[in-house]
Amino acid sequence: MKSILLLMGMGTSEIIIILVIILLLFGGRKIPELMKGLGQGVREFKDASSGKDKEADKKN
Prior knowledge:
Elements: H1 2-8, H2 12-59
């Protein structure tokens, strides 16, 4: 995680400011719903990408 943040040139203070802005925009009740949707999206992406590998193995 640190390497990603270093590549973006973001420090701790910038991350905290971004988190506060997100909290103000969406409110405390919406954030868990957003994170749940994000987690489901990542899970579907991983399933789809691993599914392609399985299909390639079946053909060979």
